[in-house]
Amino acid sequence: MDNYQYNDGELYCEQTPLAEIAEKVGTPCYVYSKRSLVDSFDSYDSAFSPVERMICFALKSCANLSVIRLLAERGAGADIVSRGELFRALKAGVPGERIIYSGVGKTRREIAYALESEIYCFNVESIPELDLIDRVAGEMNLTAPVSLRINPDVESGTHEYTTTGKKETKFGIPYDQALDCYRKTASYQHLRVMGIDTHIGSQIVSTGPFVAAYEKIARLFRELVDDGFDLEFCDLGGGLGISYNDEVPPTARQFAEAVLPVAGPLGCRIVIEPGRSISGNAGVLLTRVVHYKQTEVKNFAVVDAGMNDIIRPSLYGAYHRIEHVARPDSRDQVTLDVVGPICESGDWIARERTMPRVNAGDLLCVYSAGAYSATMASNYNGRPRGAEVLVDGSDWQVIRKAETLDDLIRGEQL
Ligand SMILES: *Cc1c(COP(=O)(O)O)cnc(C)c1O
Questions:
Q1: Known catalytic residues?
Q2: Structural domain tally of the chain?
Q3: Do residue 305 and residue 373 come from a single domain?
Q4: Is the peptide bond before 28 cis (omega within 30 degrees of 0)?
Q5: Is residue 21 included in any domain, yes or no?
Q6: Residue 310 in 3-state DSSP?
Q7: Ligand 1 centroid to 379 CA: how many Å?
Q8: Which ligand 1 atom is the nearest neighbour of the CA of 149?
Q9: What is the pTM of this model?
Q10: Pair (292, 365) in one structural domain
Q11: Distance 375 CA to ligand 1 centre (A)
């Protein structure tokens, strides 16, 4: 949250007062710091500079065209999981050769679009998926570049829903079957095996799980080379966590220092797919307090952002730091729930939070909302999604307009 700070009791993003943005574009709205996005990307780029690298920003964390373009201009590629994300990546100017396609359920239509777009590689998660990609590529008279996503069966110490490298999850090819699966690729006519891939989860706050996974992947990589495979890259996935509250995740440099001794000696190109660690703390959600409500047992700040705007608390019980945009004069503290207007008891942003007194009309800043917030937003309860804004010093621009009521019914027919 380096680029969010108080000046004279007013919260700023870089040199722009957040109150000014809320005033002009309305609330709720998402604000991103350009400096923060660029610095986070650059820190990966320099940390991995000892090796040939490709840093594919995970679009599912934050997919606004302007954000993608900003990173693409600095050399970023894209890690995509759908045809919609491929469309965005291409629109934003990411060249096909820097696009990696992940995900367990790529459809025929999605595969065809990716082949047409000449993406760098499909990270394939099962034999049935290999079959399908081979078939589609054959029909199109093309050869599909593939790597296998291997599930290394390691603990990542993160939330059950963001753990992807354990064998009971749906992701990847089980480690024990990997060698056989690679050998099986020889029987396909329209596939070219390019590399190896893994991704063990998200919001992982220590290097241990990564190192454990990459040691297994490196061992397999060497077995494959011995077996005659010519692998161009090793994709280490994403998953480095950020500080939402008091976590102290490794920096990009510490991550690289831990994993390059394992992956570097493979001598191939290293691909990484960071999402949250680039976008998460670059963004905030601004929301205004509609009512302050007290009951016998609870205090509530009812705000104009709900679980449709930021679902992480409801979905994962996630913690987001919240502060007043105008720092209150009084030192009085109150313990309250910050809740949205949606008709669900799960619609909360903070629970039992102790913070300075909150009044109707106050503008609040929900931190760490640059990742998995706008991209997970929905129109549930008939709520138009808020604007997205990119701040650059004392300049800022709307990079996605707030939705209108007409946007809510677009495509519907009477
Ligand atoms: C979600 C995901 C990422 C990005 O994860 P972060 O935790 O945001 O870094 C990277 N690769 C794959 C395959 C993913 O599913």
A1: 343
A2: 2
A3: yes
A4: yes
A5: yes
A6: coil
A7: 24
A8: 13
A9: 0.97
A10: yes
A11: 13
Tokens standing for residue 24: 């002009």
**CATH number, domain at 122?**
3.20.20.10
In whole angstroms, what is the distance from residue 198 CA to residue 8 CA? Answer: 47
Q: Which of 218, 240, 272 is the last residue of a domain?
A: 272
Say if 111 falls within a structural domain: yes
* Residue 57 covered by a domain: no
Any ligand 1 atom below 6 A from CB of 279: no
Q: Which of 151, 273, 312, 376 has most ligand 1 atoms within 8 Å of its beta carbon, as the pocket-test mutant?
A: 273
Contact 58 CB / ligand 1 (< 6 Å): yes
126 shares its domain with 228: yes
- Cα–ligand 1 centroid distance for 199 (angstroms): 7
CA 267 – CA 307 distance, rounded (Å):
45
**Other Cβ atoms closer than 10 A to 352:** 9
Question: Residue 401 and residue 29: Cα distance in Å, rounded?
Answer: 10
Residues of the domain holding 130: 103-272
Domain final residue, candidates 216, 249, 272 = 272
Q: For ligand 1, what atom is nearest to the CA of residue 202?
A: 7
Run means of pLDDT, 10 residues per run, the chain, 414 residues? 92 98 98 98 98 98 98 98 98 98 97 98 97 98 98 87 85 95 96 97 96 98 97 97 97 98 98 98 98 97 98 97 95 96 96 97 98 98 98 98 98 97
Place of tokens 């480690």: 175
Atom of ligand 1 nearest to the CA of 241: 7
